[in-house]
Design a protein that fits this description.
Layout: H1 5-9, E1 16-20, H2 22-31, H3 54-59, E2 75-84, E3 92-105, E4 112-122, E5 125-136, E6 146-147, E7 162-167, H4 172-176, H5 189-194, H6 204-219, E8 227-234, E9 243-250, E10 254-261, E11 267-276
Antiparallel strand pairs: 1-3, 2-5, 2-8, 3-4, 3-6, 4-5, 7-9, 8-11, 9-10, 10-11
Length: about 280
């Protein structure tokens, strides 16, 4: 069913306060695979560092979907564009301010994209901004795109400067869902098959977080303060247990990247962008 643009763009999502502990930031890092390379900076409370994409897990809230006619079972993540103004403390409290800022229309009977912007403020200071693209199957045909649209980044037209493999675990989606996104698409085989997948898929936000951790470790010396922006589009599913093959291109402003599955050779992330401070 086509989305209702007036209803969505007029939606007022109440601001809310969210408290988080070091258990949450440690669990997030573990769910991305941190610690398996003996780098304990993200998975132990002594001088702990927080993977900056952790902020996205704090923003998760699907309570507005049903009242606006959006079927959660038809929603998958289309992409994320995150801006970091300051590193996260291992534990703390943030104020969330969220709104729907744009809708993309792929045509009648085709997909729609909902662009949701969320800001996190700590002690009145913005520390994190998320532009989240939600892909809604069958939601198109509402009269054309309106409002803000996702920025499109393209990888350089040349061979990558580096490739790197990262393995995922068979139970990774079951671990990541404990952070809040309990969409059954990522846990129940019958739901995944009904959606057209052979088995449950990994959360796009988890794949995105794996990419963020990988860039942080390889190009930022593990320092979250050096990463000011991180963005990518989700171009295909990743099944838990598969291996990600990253391609990286070095740019003046940071890194461009993409990723595919080693087992199936199919794209998973594209248009990746990481802005890195010297």
């Amino acid at each position: 069913m086509a989305l209702d643009p007036e209803r969505l763009l007029a939606l007022e999502i109440p601001s809310r306060q969210v408290d988080y502990s070091d258990r949450d930031t440690l669990l997030y890092a573990l769910s991305l695979g941190a610690g398996f390379d003996k780098d304990l900076r993200f998975v132990h409370e002594d001088e702990q560092r927080v993977v900056p994409s952790f902020g996205q897990s704090l923003t998760f809230d699907d309570s507005w979907m049903d009242p606006t006619g959006v079927d959660l079972a038809k929603v998958v993540h289309g992409g994320l564009d995150l801006r970091f103004d300051a590193p996260f403390t291992p534990a703390g409290s943030v104020e969330l301010r969220s709104s729907i800022v744009g809708l993309g229309d792929k045509g009648e009977g085709k997909a729609a994209i909902i662009l949701q912007e969320t800001e996190l403020l700590q002690e009145g200071r913005r520390i994190f901004t998320s532009l989240s693209s939600l892909f809604v199957r069958g939601g198109g045909g509402f009269g054309g795109s309106v409002g803000q649209q996702p920025e499109m980044n393209a990888s350089p037209d040349r061979e990558p400067d580096e490739t790197f493999e990262v393995s995922t675990r068979a139970d990774q989606a079951l671990l990541f869902r404990l952070l809040g996104d309990r969409n059954p698409l990522h846990a129940l085989p019958e739901v995944a098959r009904a959606a057209g997948f052979e088995r449950p898929i990994l959360h796009g936000a988890c794949t995105f977080g794996i990419a963020c951790l990988t860039v942080l470790q390889r190009y930022c010396d593990g320092d979250p303060a050096r990463l000011s922006r991180f963005a990518a589009r989700f171009s295909g599913p990743l099944y838990p247990g598969e291996t990600l093959v990253f391609s990286f291109w070095k740019l003046d402003t940071g890194i461009s990247f993409s990723a595919k599955t080693k087992e199936r050779g199919l794209p998973v992330l594209d248009g990746g962008r990481a802005d890195i401070q010297a």
